[in-house]
Amino acid sequence: MQMQPGYSVVQKLLHWIIALCVLVLIPVGLWMSSRATANLWDTLTDALYAWHKAIGFLVLWTMFIRLLIKLRQGTPPYPSTLSTHLIITAKIVHGLIYVLLIAVPMLGWAGVTAYPALITIGGYNLPALPFIPKSEALAKQIFNLHGVLAMTLGVIALGHIAAALKHLMIDRDGVFQRMWHNKT
Ligand code: HEM
Question: Whose CA is nearest to atom 20 of ligand 1?
Fold first, then answer.
């Protein structure tokens, strides 16, 4: 099988760092908000919130870097065995994931700015997002949207993982390796 050129080392590294962060952020987000709903305000809940905010903020800025790299370098060509239909579907799914990976942390940041609850790990405060008024009611609406879009992201990511594993184990067409290791 002839290997197609893949993504750069930096693109691959950022992809897997963000994947790992999202894998942590969704369960931690659900866990901490269930503790908040149960009115369990202790050091564990505080730590979960602090880490969730810090890791989510990191994802936001890493996504901006990824977006800049993608706009400059584009996407490496897919193997000729893939149909145009499949490539268009992949581009739509990847586009949606990019949009959600920026919208979800932006909403989290907007929510903690409105509440306000900017405190994060080590007692440090995140900067406030400009133009967001202080209002607990607004913060709750923003957090609802944050949660719904985060779960949408989780579902789309599961489809993305399933497709990647199909390329790795069934199609064996080198598409998975584009994001893992590749010999160009
Ligand atoms: C890709 C990044 C992120 C993902 C995937 C994510 C995911 C989630 C999830 C799944 C929940 C639980 C929602 C629910 O219970 O319905 C949540 C809650 C929350 N997230 Fe995020 N989050 C991200 C980034 C951020 C950022 C950057 C911040 C703030 C700086 C943040 C602040 C919060 C807060 C405060 C809550 C609790 C809301 C509440 O108690 O109602 N998140 N997040």
Answer: 108
Q: Is the CB of 53 under 6 A from ligand 1?
A: yes
Spacing, Cα 19 to ligand 1 middle (Å): 16
- Per-residue pLDDT of 144-156, as tens digits, reads 999 999 999 999 9
- CATH code given to domain 9-179: 1.20.950
15 near 52, Cβ under 8 Å?
no
Q: What is the pLDDT of residue 4?
A: 54
* Residue to mutate, 14, 21, 25, ligand 1, most ligand atoms under 8 Å from C-beta: 25
Sign for the CA dihedral angle at 69, 108, 106, 146 comes to positive
pTM of the model: 0.95
Q: What is the model's pLDDT at position 184?
A: 46
Map tokens 């499949």 to a residue: 86
Boundaries of every domain in the chain: 9-179
